[in-house]
Design goal:
The termini are far apart. By secondary structure, the chain is an all-alpha fold. The protein is elongated and about 60 Å long. The protein contains 3 helices and no strands. The mean pLDDT is 90. Helix 1 (14-39) crosses helix 2 (48-59). It has helices at 14-39, 48-59, 65-82.
Length: 83
């Protein structure tokens, strides 16, 4: 009943904060991608490498292509559940 919480469990780790920031930035890019695909100004979705370069050049955020692939599927599922 009187379970004690560790102090660590009350705070978000730096790693988790970085992940949340990256996923937020990537969601912005995926929304831009979706809009451009609908308008026809983009013929195919961005590649993982292209997203990696956008994150690096536009936001100075470094992440691997593999991580982008994982986040893409997580975000697509989340975006599809919202609509």
């Amino acid at each position: 009943k009187n379970k004690l919480l560790t102090l660590r469990s009350l705070f978000i780790s730096e790693r988790e904060l970085k992940k949340r920031k990256g996923k937020h930035l990537m969601s912005i890019i995926l929304k831009e991608e979706r809009e451009r695909l609908e308008k026809g100004s983009l013929s195919q979705p961005f590649s993982d490498e292209h997203i990696r370069l956008i994150l690096l050049n536009r936001y100075d955020y470094k992440v691997t292509r593999r991580t982008i692939n994982n986040w893409r599927w997580e975000l697509i599922r989340e975006m599809n559940n919202e609509t």
